Amino acid sequence: MSKRKSASLCARKVSSLLLGLTVASTLVFTSAVPSLTYAASATALSKTATGFSAEKADWQLEYEQTFAQLVKKESLARYSKDLSERSSLVGSPGNEANVEYAVRELKKAGLQPEVKTYHVYMSVPKKISVTQTYPQKRELQVIEKLPKGTKHANEIVPGYNAYSPAGEVEAELVYANYGRPEDFEELEKRGISVKDKIVITRYGANFRGVKPEQAAKRGAVGMLMYSDPADDGYIKGLVYPDGPWRPADAIQRGSILYIFRYPGDPLTPGEPSTPDAKRLDPADADSLPTIPTTPISYGEARSLLEAMEGEEAPESWQGGLPFTYKIGPGQTRVKISLDIDYKQQPVNDVIVRIPGAKYPEQMVVIGAHRDTWVKGTSDDLSGWTATMEIARVLGEMAKKGWQPDRTIVLAGWDGEEYGLLGSVEWAEDEREELTKNAVAYINMDGLGGQFFGASAVPSLKQLVYEITKEVTEPRSGMSIYDDWYLRSGRKEPAIGKLGSGSDYTPFIQHLGVPSLDMGFGAAGGLYHSAYDNLDAMERFTDPGYEHHAAGARLVGMTALRLANAEVIPFKYSDYAADVRAMLEELADKGTLGVDLSPVIAQAQEWQAAAAALEEKAANIIEDGVTEEEYGDLAKLNAALLQQERDLLKPEGLSGRPWYKHQVWAPGLTTGYAAQPLPAIAEALQANDPAALQKAAEKLKEVLAKAAETARSVK
Amino acid sequence: MSKRKSASLCARKVSSLLLGLTVASTLVFTSAVPSLTYAASATALSKTATGFSAEKADWQLEYEQTFAQLVKKESLARYSKDLSERSSLVGSPGNEANVEYAVRELKKAGLQPEVKTYHVYMSVPKKISVTQTYPQKRELQVIEKLPKGTKHANEIVPGYNAYSPAGEVEAELVYANYGRPEDFEELEKRGISVKDKIVITRYGANFRGVKPEQAAKRGAVGMLMYSDPADDGYIKGLVYPDGPWRPADAIQRGSILYIFRYPGDPLTPGEPSTPDAKRLDPADADSLPTIPTTPISYGEARSLLEAMEGEEAPESWQGGLPFTYKIGPGQTRVKISLDIDYKQQPVNDVIVRIPGAKYPEQMVVIGAHRDTWVKGTSDDLSGWTATMEIARVLGEMAKKGWQPDRTIVLAGWDGEEYGLLGSVEWAEDEREELTKNAVAYINMDGLGGQFFGASAVPSLKQLVYEITKEVTEPRSGMSIYDDWYLRSGRKEPAIGKLGSGSDYTPFIQHLGVPSLDMGFGAAGGLYHSAYDNLDAMERFTDPGYEHHAAGARLVGMTALRLANAEVIPFKYSDYAADVRAMLEELADKGTLGVDLSPVIAQAQEWQAAAAALEEKAANIIEDGVTEEEYGDLAKLNAALLQQERDLLKPEGLSGRPWYKHQVWAPGLTTGYAAQPLPAIAEALQANDPAALQKAAEKLKEVLAKAAETARSVK
């Protein structure tokens, strides 16, 4: 009767279910919830297909449901098990074996997978060594203590940061919290210099590549990064193998390539790394980090931090180790010795095409990265196995005559973990084709999990809501939308903004292809460690592969919707409204005397033009599409593709020409998190009215172009 | 590299570790965190013993550490496994078998357990039946669908509410959210009557007994309660057996006895249920519920709720089932048919004493309930096995000559789940002894888990902080205090107020024995279902029994501290300050013209008197206690015991004479949650200045008495 165990109470409205056009359906996906028979509840899933005439909608919904029924969790479980056997680290034999496996499996489904190889300059670790040299001498463990008998243990890469320069440094330690600019400013305020020191920071709060960049700027000679138990270890819950949180020996590997400057091969920005590509001298590649940097576990960080002297670290800098953290310098000295080769290595993307019947040149691209740090059953075999499953099912359906109107391209990207290598090189390689014909890009990075989440351009918001209403959330048996809605506590569940950190980056930010990233998250802290493995997936993250299957259904159905729509379901009036709202929010905080009203007015004008176009589209398809309307539709769809492209500037953002999109970019000091309206935000941050004026004008230009495109359809 | 998986960031200050008197120690409890060697960190645990002279503190800390080292998780695991074999439902054969097991085990440790039997009027379910009679006829499942081969499955009691009256009712359903007064007021506002209806409510937000009482008041003829998946089911996470959340067939059993009026045998309020006790006519027992009430699972609630008509329920009433909840009445009819016997049944408390050497008459009582609903591995075998382990270790230590100064009493309460039966009857039975000599009561209800929490009278706050600094949190390897602190986000982790819902109630609220409830919570929703079992404990709640062991150490050490202190470590200046703060908070919201300043001043006066007494105590023991000071100490300790007793009024609270404490009571419409200063709060709520005036005077009297007691020590 203890009240301690009574559940916390959370009660929110179940959404407006049964919204829109509801089509009777007998399709029921098996639910993980025992003993609830969902046959009775299929009507709770609503069926609406924006962009389709009533007649075609029937065909489409049948198409989607046939697809969804053929997606099998057993198939996903098998892929997951087989691919988790070996590490798929880019450039490794296990990675190659996994390419062969995927190709073999996809061929079995009647598909013709292609392996696209690029030759990318990358780091290859030979020996990683970290030694505490004072107050006592101690060699640190740089790899997990895996149980004896772990298969393919020799293939497990030690904890290291891809693209760290090689080198040996020894110095006193200074603790800099998360290594954000504000953390270094706090040190400066206290008169503590990191010059000629090794900085130790904890993971979290920003992209890890930002940390050594900030430290290097201030004269540090090296960096250690560790995972603090307060962030993803024992303070959060039981650690692996008892629970999903990070144990004392687990190391977060990860790239520190400055992807916020540009991702992909550091020597070929903007161009594919073909064998004969023109390459920069590495000394001129400004995405390459400059100081030796390497990650350690909290079990190993402990003795370093505990021995430190100097001032007590501020309250918010204290972590979960059992002592008061000090800033240093003093007492603890460390030697970092990194023997890392740099060479060109192959990056192998696996690409499959399901040719379109009606508009074969137009493409909907689905992708997930197929490389991993270690086993990577979660990151990102969960996304890649789902991609394979979608391909398998579309392949089976093609044999029976189901063919999409537009081509669906499915991709397994290699080298994502090192810096989005495979997707960037492919996107650069296919720039012309994609710019002309890519309808959308859908990304999956982390599909095993329990709680749905999405990030997307605002024009895709309604489509995400629509599709999530049509797939059952296996945990709850309600639609994914309603489950998401109920957990969100908002009137509409929030869709994130696209920053960086996964393979949508080249599509949206370099090419202006409308992008969407969907997946399922879970509580846990095994990220980039040797414990992101099959056991953790099957016991904690997605037992039964139910969410793998739901994710594959969701993404496959979204792709089919985009591939077959008579009017591609992009709602740019939402996009323009969001841009306007973001502008108004920035303007509210002061504009350095610069008048932002013209650009705000321009966003408003785009909004009106886009809304008019949407109304036109709705009118055309309302009573079925006649032959003579086909030409109108083609123009309309072309305008829909074009509006996102209109938001690019060929010269890119100031200081980072690769990032061409004027609305979305990763933050320069966050790395992952999106910085919307980057030029304006950076000018405001820099207190630079001239730059702000220029940024506003530039944004106004792209918005005007989009509005003009919307208006151009007569 | 997906950012979805990067951990949420929580960074707070690690507390002032190493506070106070630090004693070197070689004691290290094995930690669940692999590969962190905690030998190096033993100094992170601080050792302070308030109430002990320096010389005696050394002996005490050695005593505690010897105790702590002897507590074994293996022993706890064995008890847990053995006792989880059968159900320990009060009055059942499994319960009796488990008494015999405990007695046998405790005797092995050289102890002399006593079984105290009371004869309590209670409900015995014969047949529970719920039928949907319209729009379709359907018999509902009233027990979990356990896998074939489940051992002792015939002993599993169906889902039922203890103390529901027997009877058969059939009526239309009305949905009333959580069944709180405000929920019924919302119905009234909408003109929806529950008269002659069956009310369906969800579990949560209050003690379940409040729900049928509120419904009965308004003329309802029956009640169904179900666990909504938004509260502790699939919306929260994976359900059992995939995860720890409530599956569709799991039923929350539970008593609906009106324990907020008085707990224990409904026929013998205030007196023990001895065979010859004077008993009320059940018709006169105002703790007995009046309308047939029974619980169902969400798998079964679904078809009832889904078929309902009438208005849409408000936003905050919507739960996690996949449709819009309606209020009714209309469409759904239900028949509840409860064949429940009422008879006297035995309630068997297991009591063990470790006699004190110096003050054998003074008692520190430790207790946990040994009855369960089904297997109850978490609720509350976790607490009871820890009680047994503390007893076992103290028994072993006694053989080697370690004897506490005061007597330690360890109790396994029976019938807690039905309404605190065993603890209430024993406390009533031992009233005289306890009133005179009980130093404190320490309760454990839910010890298996991962996150520490405590509720206590304010005089025990410092002791809780002190002891939690001395025991290692197995999840994190830091002290329990620091782990708790780090998670709390406050300057001091909060200690809860004592309401009701577990066995501390008779001690604090009926007898004025300073009480403390400690344990470890965990995420999950298997509460009172057949799935609170060994498997769930060992896979999700406390793998390895590390927290069972930490809890046993913590409680045992607290008891030893209280048993051996030269000055019992109660800080009444904290208590008085809290009372004053609660009064000021109430006064800030308006006092109906009544002047509360005299009672506030009285609290302040008590605070000063208590602080003076604490200073006196510190002075006495500062340089060691001399023979001639023993008399002073005895008086001082008597005054410390007395101050809590001073807060009682023999006539009790208005309308509920059993509840004698003037500062703490369970809320009349919450049932579990504490209602501090109940008379004043209720008068304010009722807008009754005369009652408020009277309540303030009464409170002033008890505070004056406590102040006088504090001052009485010369």
Automatic annotation (TrEMBL), chains A, B:
Domain PA: 169-255
Molecular function as annotated in GO: aminopeptidase activity
Coiled-coil residue windows: none
Matching InterPro entries: PA_dom_sf, PA_domain, Peptidase_M28, Peptidase_M28B, TFR-like_dimer_dom, TFR-like_dimer_dom_sf
Record domain Transferrin receptor-like dimerisation: where: 594-709
Keyword entries, A-Z: Aminopeptidase, Hydrolase, Protease
Annotated region described as Disordered, given as residue ranges: 268-292
Domain spans labelled Peptidase M28: 350-538
Similarity comment: Belongs to the peptidase M28 family. M28B subfamily.
Protein name: Putative aminopeptidase
Origin species: Brevibacillus borstelensis AK1
